[in-house]
Amino acid sequence: MSSTAASAPPRNLRTALPLALLLLLGCGDEEQRAGDDALLDKPELRTGEEQRERLCSRPESDLVIDAFCGDDAPPLSGLMDLRQVMGLGDNDNGINQGYAATANSTSLSHRGVSAINPRIIFFRLENEDVEDNVELIALAYTRGEQFAELVVRSRIDGELQFYLVAFTLPCEESTAGCLPGDLLTEAVEQDWGEISVYAEEDLLNTPLDCRVCHQPDGPGSEKLLRMQEFRPPWNHWLWQHSVGGRSLIDDYYAAKGDETFAGIPGPDILTSQPGLLSALVFFAGSDEQPNEYRSDLIEPEVRQSANSQGGNQPADNSVPGESETWELIYEQAKRGRAITVPYHDVKITDADKLATMSEAYAAYREGTLPREDLPDIREVYPDDPELLARIGYTTEPDMDGEAIMLQACGQCHNEDMDQTLSRSRFDVDLTRVEPMVLERAISRITLPIDDPDVMPPARFRHLDAASRDRLVEFLRR
Ligand code: HEC
Ligand code: HEC
Q: In ligand 2, which atom is closest to the CA atom of 32?
């Protein structure tokens, strides 16, 4: 499949993009551009001021455009500046604006999120009934990522509009590169270098394509805010009024103590308000979450099944729970008909690994462990591949090739997705796939996990060698 592009080759992104962005987005490799149809190829991404020109040349009007499209880019040296520029600088967790943190995410940053590295969402509810119309905004952030995510409402068509704010860090220039201590501590929230703001249109056909999850029924359908655990007790969200939520808060503090996190003073983290976030989601019209995760049903099922075998869910997950309600939604995700679902147990962590990483982090905070020696505190998940598949990080160990394909590829390669993108050449309905593209699929599945072009994209799911072989065999037939 070595095709030489006849026309002028597109600018090679391998050299044009900083490494961090390259790993984020993959690269537009000419070899992948062999299609002779008119489908949109992987976009050429710009950065910094060049990207700002592209962003600001669109006929769009919303809070992000207000903030970034003045004469000069706003100077952002870190997360707190971004919060302030977007009007989310207040730490008060109030009645129409505030924040919520989760210990299990199914978003772009699902891998890496846990009780000791939570994902936090700052937001403000919209209100048209006040004199100064208050506009919707939410900002999602996870340590370990070199970006923050935003959603606002377009003043032009009234639709939700998604943006990614990517930043560079000084550690990228160092010989050692970025270490866990640079990415998973307060260091990652400061000293941001070049800022690149991408609209959702810029990210189409990349692994970060917001619409795959926020417009799951495809072009023309309504865009959604997501909160799969829309109802109380919001199983995986830090919430001081539920047993599960409190046990996650305890895990958080065991590692993090009183450190300031995302600009919030440590003691205030426990005011995390998932209920206010579900109000935002509700009033934005996204109350019907596809394949909803019913915390109200799943949590008691898990509790009863585990506790009848001597377990103590949700605080202790050493005896895993079982839930029929959860199995039904998992089945949808497994067949590629819905995005990954949050796990059935409140805790997704292995108790021993969690304890080790929490101790290391506490030692770092107390100054007895130097930052450069901090281990990767995201490594707290169990080793059991079956559990990992159910959490959403891999595929189930005993699956046949077709089932692997559905679980690993279905969410991005299906007929509801935008068919004008080159991504649509591959589809889990193989009757729609050209033989040449099947070959391409095989070669992309077998790429090393750190190759930006590997499929599925590494941030979403890793396939082990045996599963890859079974998938390749299936695609060859
Ligand atoms: C793989 C699916 C997926 C993709 C892709 C995705 N999101 Fe999300 N997003 C979610 C989920 C699920 C949540 C709910 C919280 C969680 O699980 O972390 C969420 C939450 C958010 C929120 C908080 C408001 C809300 O909807 O709850 C923002 C802001 C957001 N995403 C922005 C973005 C942007 C910007 C992009 C593209 C750059 C993007 N997302 C891509 C799944 C996704
Ligand atoms: C998170 C979304 C996502 C998942 C999951 C995913 N892909 Fe992709 N895939 C993409 C995107 C985006 C592109 C287009 C950009 C590119 O070529 O890198 C793409 C492109 C491809 C292409 C090239 C199509 C062409 O001819 O141009 C193949 C083949 C492919 N994917 C196969 C797979 C297979 C097989 C799986 C599962 C093992 C998979 N993908 C899982 C997002 C995904």
A: 27
**456 CA closest ligand 2 atom index:** 41
**CA dihedral in degrees (160, 196, 149, 88; nearest 10)?**
-90
Q: Which residues of 134-157 are buried (b: 16+ CB within 10 A; e: fewer)?
A: bbbbbbbbbbbbbbbbbbbbbeee
Can you tell me which residue has the tokens 């979403």?
460
The pick from 36, 111, 426 for probing ligand 2's pocket by mutation, whose C-beta has the most ligand atoms within 8 angstroms, reads: 426
Residues 167-197 pLDDT 10s: 999 999 999 999 999 999 999 999 999 999 9
pLDDT in tens, 297-346: 999 999 999 999 999 999 999 999 999 999 999 999 999 999 999 999 99
| Residues flanking ligand 2, CB < 6 Å | 26, 32, 35, 42, 205-207, 209, 212, 408-409, 411-413, 422-423, 425-426, 437, 440-441, 444-445, 453, 455-457, 460
Half-sphere exposure of 243 (CA within 13 A, CB side): 11
126-135, 253-262, 389-398, range with the lowest pLDDT: 126-135
SS3 category, 160 = strand
Strand-pairing partners, residue 101, are 120
Model-wide pTM > 0.90: yes
Query: In one letter, which amino acid is 130?
Result: V
Tell the residue nearest (CA) to atom 13 of ligand 2.
423
**Alpha-carbon span 28 to 13, nearest angstrom:** 6
**Cα–Cα–Cα angle for 20, 339, 324, rounded to 5 degrees:** 135
Residue ranges per structural domain of the chain: 46-290, 395-476
Q: How far apart are CA 198 and CA 55, in angstroms?
A: 7
With bands split at pLDDT 50, 70 and 90, how would you rate the model's confidence at 12? very low
Nearest-angstrom CA–CA distance, 31 and 9: 10
Cis peptide upstream of residue 43 (ω within 30 degrees of 0): no
Cβ-proximal residues to 431 (8 Å cutoff; 6+ apart), any chain: none
